[in-house]
Amino acid sequence: MDTPPRPLQPGQLIARGVCRHLLSHDFVPIEEFSPERGRRVDVMALGPKGEIWVVECKSSRADFVSDAKWQGYLGWCDRYFWAVEADFPIDLLPEGTGLIIADAFDAEILRMAPETRLAPARRAALIRRFARDAARRLRRATDPRL
Asked: Which backbone phi and psi does 40 adopt, to 5 degrees?
């Protein structure tokens, strides 16, 4: 017998709205993506020209304050964003990063993140990892025995 899916956590609901919004900008997102061993970003999105965005979703002040690793993600993207709900205290978020306001259904980019282009070799390796992860997830979704 199949077990019912677990309800999504607040950060996962924010990520869902972010992913829907990114798709409307022709970016394909993956949630909980690992650009390298030991790192896991909430959302990584690949744009039509090979640009890579990372979005960290924060559901509360405590969730943000406890995140000491976010700066380690800056070297894995061209643009870095925070995604939060409308009532989040945005004055906590660092300057020089993007800001997305989101809910479970959609999102809006309020502040575009500054661009810091990835080195070509890192971009190529990251796009390959992204593609392989996406293909693996699709395979698992179509063949539950894997």
From this structure: -145, 115
